[in-house]
């Protein structure tokens, strides 16, 4: 009887507590300018990365993120312009950043906050939400790389053969054909789901990329996350996290996901803006130390999942090299994190061969373990031919080499154009690793008369 009475009293007390108004914690905006603002009254209760909601004088709401804490002040950046926000505006804690990813998101275009950009109506939320910030799978329990993967681009399939769960960097200056190459990969790669993260993309190019390069078939199995170049730094940074989070959702279901991110450099630039606003000192070429700490945290999330989960994220990340300088800080840091790099050369594109991949400067660190002996011999021979032809290019242009002087050079002169022709590929073409090596073998079997 006493137990029953105690339960009744507890239920009565719980009901009374539920009817009480919920306590809310508020601060006030102390200063604001651009997309940065300071809040007083909350510093003792919040942490770095916490979300805040600002209430404007006209009832509008602006979301921000805490980037620095000093004494009683919290410095935050906003995800949108601070129009309507002034000194004294109320700031309250907001829920942490999550995405309710759902199967119905395939074929959709959204911004980093999960809002649709394609005019097809609201996105249906999934039953579970995933945090945008997450740790990579533990290194000791992470599965090994899977079998080799058909990327659908002959130059990549033959010279930088990729395995499921591998991470490659696409290094290029602007205007060398990165977007077209990404569209070829999205349409031709052997995967279940494609996730495209467009970080700092030009606004006018989004529809062109979706309709002309990607097309309806490519979009049907893809989720596109976009933050245009005019977006605040926080939103551009969140585009990379959102794309990775969506990829992790589908990989967690045991599916093979191809994650294409364009570009890691603009992600790093957004981090630099945030770091400078938070008071970090500029270091290498103006990049703050936090940039080089955050890059591996993002990139290591791609790859195989934990042992026992067949899902994997194969990541291809573009890196913009300023002035064709492949040793600039971001490119150098990313190259050391990833499992290989692909170099796109402007001179090759200017010569009319696309994709403009410099196969001699490109490398996949997993190639020795995923090629058959015959394929490995083909690849080594092709590299020798192209390397020798490149060494002799100046003499050939000057007419200083006489045919018959060196049989190896004669062979390189004969075979290099055939290999170059094999590497050229139109946007609508596809292929497999096997067909790429078959085409390479055919190019290397040219008879001495060039037939």
What does this structure look like?
The protein has 451 residues and is an alpha/beta fold. The chain is 36% helix and 21% strand. It has 13 helices and 19 strands. Strands 8, 12, 13, 14, 15, 16, 17, 18 and 19 form a nine-stranded mixed sheet that branches. A six-stranded antiparallel beta barrel has the order 1-2-5-4-3-6. It has a two-stranded antiparallel sheet with strand order 7-9. Helix 10 crosses helix 12 and helix 12 packs antiparallel against helix 13. The longest helix has 20 residues. The mean pLDDT is 89.
Give a topology summary.
Layout: H1 2-19, E1 26-33, E2 36-40, E3 51-55, E4 61-70, E5 73-78, E6 90-94, E7 98-99, E8 109-110, E9 130-131, E10 148-149, H2 154-159, E11 162-163, E12 167-172, H3 178-188, E13 193-201, H4 205-220, E14 222-228, H5 233-252, E15 256-262, H6 264-277, H7 289-299, E16 303-304, E17 312-320, H8 329-337, E18 340-343, H9 346-350, E19 363-364, H10 373-391, H11 393-398, H12 407-423, H13 433-444
Parallel strand pairs: 8-14, 12-17, 12-18, 13-14, 13-15, 15-17
Antiparallel strand pairs: 1-2, 1-6, 2-5, 3-4, 3-6, 4-5, 7-9, 10-11, 16-17, 18-19
Catalytic activity: ATP + H2O + cellular proteinSide 1 = ADP + phosphate + cellular proteinSide 2
Biased composition (Low complexity): 120-133
GO molecular function, one term: ATP binding
Radius of gyration over alpha carbons?
Answer: 27 Å
Low-confidence stretches: none
What class, by secondary structure content? alpha/beta
- The strand count comes to 19
Oligomeric nature of the chains: single chain
| Fraction in helix | 25-40%
Query: How would a crystallographer describe the biggest sheet?
Result: 9 strands, mixed
Number of helices: 13
Report how far apart the termini are: 101 Å
Mean pLDDT value: 89
Query: What's the shape?
Result: elongated
Percentage beta strand: 15-25%
């Amino acid at each position: 009887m006493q137990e029953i009475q105690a339960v009744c009293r507890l239920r009565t007390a719980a009901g009374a507590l539920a009817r009480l108004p919920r306590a809310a914690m508020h601060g006030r905006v102390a200063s604001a300018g651009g997309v940065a603002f300071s809040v007083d009254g909350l510093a003792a209760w919040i942490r770095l990365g916490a979300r805040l909601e600002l209430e404007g004088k006209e009832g509008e709401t602006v979301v921000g993120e805490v980037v620095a804490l000093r004494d009683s002040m919290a410095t935050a950046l906003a995800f949108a312009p601070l129009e309507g926000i002034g000194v004294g505006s109320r700031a309250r804690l907001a829920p942490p950043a999550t995405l309710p990813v759902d199967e119905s998101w395939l074929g959709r275009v959204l911004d980093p906050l999960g809002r649709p950009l394609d005019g097809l109506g609201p996105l249906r939320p999934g039953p579970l939400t995933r945090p945008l910030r997450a740790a990579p799978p533990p290194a000791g329990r992470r599965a090994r790389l899977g079998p080799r993967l058909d990327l659908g681009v002959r130059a990549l399939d033959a010279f930088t053969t990729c395995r499921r769960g591998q991470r490659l960097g696409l290094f290029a200056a602007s205007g060398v054909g990165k977007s077209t190459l990404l569209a070829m990969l999205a349409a031709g790669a052997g995967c279940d789901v494609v996730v495209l993260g467009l970080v700092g993309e030009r606004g006018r190019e989004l529809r062109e990329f979706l309709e002309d390069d990607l097309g309806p078939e490519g979009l049907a199995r893809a989720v596109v996350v976009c933050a245009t170049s005019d977006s605040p730094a926080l939103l551009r940074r969140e585009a990379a996290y959102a794309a990775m989070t969506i990829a992790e959702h589908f990989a967690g279901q045991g599916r093979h996901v191809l994650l294409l991110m364009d570009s890691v450099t603009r992600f790093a630039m957004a981090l630099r803006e945030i770091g400078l606003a938070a008071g970090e000192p500029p270091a290498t070429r103006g990049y703050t130390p936090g940039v080089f700490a955050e890059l591996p945290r993002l990139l290591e999330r791609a790859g195989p999942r934990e042992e026992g989960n067949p899902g994997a994220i194969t990541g291809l990340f573009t890196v913009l090299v300023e002035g064709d300088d492949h040793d600039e800080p971001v490119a150098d840091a990313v190259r050391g994190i990833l499992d290989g790099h692909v170099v796109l050369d402007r001179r090759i594109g200017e010569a009319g061969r696309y994709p403009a991949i410099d196969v001699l400067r490109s490398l996949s660190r997993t190639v020795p373990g995923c090629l058959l002996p015959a394929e490995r011999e083909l690849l080594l021979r092709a590299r020798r031919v192209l390397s020798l032809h490149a060494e002799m290019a100046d003499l050939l242009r000057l007419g200083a080499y006489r045919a018959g002087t060196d049989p190896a050079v004669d062979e390189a002169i004969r075979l290099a154009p055939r290999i170059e022709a094999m590497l050229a590929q139109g946007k609508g073409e596809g292929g497999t690793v096997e067909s790429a090596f078959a085409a390479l073998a055919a190019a290397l079997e040219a008879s001495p008369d060039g037939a």
